[in-house]
Amino acid sequence: MLCKVTQFTLFLHMPGLPGTPAGGAVYVRWGRKSCPDNANLVYNGTAAGSLNGTGGTSDIFCMPEDPSYKHVVDSVGRFKTFLDNIRYETDEMFSSINEANVPCAVCQSETRSVALLQPGKTSCPEGWTKEYAGYLMADEYNNEPRSAICIDEAAEGAGNPNDRDRGLTSAMFASCGGLKCPPYNPNGLVTCTLCTK
Questions:
Q1: Which fold has domain 2-65+82-196?
Q2: Between 121 and 140, the higher pLDDT residue
Q3: How many helices (DSSP H) and strands (DSSP E) are in the chain?
């Protein structure tokens, strides 16, 4: 079962995923090709979404490295939309992988059944286990809004994109016009933690 919680995706108990133990929370680890030690890899891939201003989706998907198709056409008609890779676009951090594609890993916790993305924190609530921590990232402020994703603090790149402008993911900062400053800091990169219980 998949539930949307504001702009964040919360994965609930999903029993019986092929190739994984029964039970356990399923979540995406953005920015890495592998899962934490206490989780099993369901599959890995590359982050993808629709380009700014081209229709399509505001969601970001972890697209598998080995896609399968049920229908292939000789030519694409007028009524269509596309998925494209998402790349890092940041000068605040991750300078060594700036403009590289964003990898992803779909992970299943071995023993915990609920996952929670906690924005603005570097730790989990009491009684929860931290799967990974990182930074909230989304499309640049002058582009159309896109779902935010929590990029692992030890992010890696997945190869360089082609020359054309792809979907972007940039660091998020607090806006003092909407959030109370302090405690929020307009110069602080907004953190996030993926927690399970």
A1: Noncollagenous (NC1) domain of collagen IV (2.170.240)
A2: 121
A3: 0, 12
